[in-house]
Amino acid sequence: MDDLYEAVENANEKKKLLLLEFIGSTSYRSTCEFMKPIVESVANTYKNKADFCTVDVDNNEFKDLAKAFRVQALPTFLIIVDYKMVEQIVAPDKQELIKSINKAAPTK
């Protein structure tokens, strides 16, 4: 959980958005694994606009966080800007993810 707080703080300090990816390492594994190369590609392309953080809901430490954000399907992506969730995206394709990042990214 400390790593997650650090990711939120770092993104805010750098004036970037934070993309939280909620995955399941055991539940929904195949769907989440399918998204992995897509997320890596987008993260590499948008490293100047966004920080990326993965949250495994199968880790007991994050179950309450997933409930708090009403994560009901995996993978779910939350875009956080200035400590606020601005968008929730469920199982997007690459273009939808890119469009959401471009729309939410703070301008420097």
In short:
Pfam families: Thioredoxin. By secondary structure, the protein is of the alpha+beta class.
Characterise this structure.
The protein is of the alpha+beta class. It has one domain: Glutaredoxin. Helices cover 45% and strands 25% of the residues. It has four helices and four strands, in the order αβαβαββα. The chain has a four-stranded mixed beta sheet, sandwiched between helices. Strand 1, helix 2 and strand 2 form a beta-alpha-beta unit. It is globular. The termini are far apart. The model has no long low-confidence stretch (mean pLDDT 91). It holds the Pfam family Thioredoxin.
Number of helices: 4
Q: How would you sum up the global shape?
A: globular
Domain module count = 1
What is the typical, i.e. mean, pLDDT? 91
- Major β-sheet profile: 4 strands, mixed
CATH architecture assignment: 3-Layer(aba) Sandwich
The Cα radius of gyration reads 13 Å
CATH topology: Glutaredoxin
Specify the helix fraction band: 40-55%
State which percent range the strand residues make up: 25-35%
Q: What is the quaternary state of this protein? A: single chain
Class derived from helix and strand content: alpha+beta
**Low-confidence residue ranges:** none
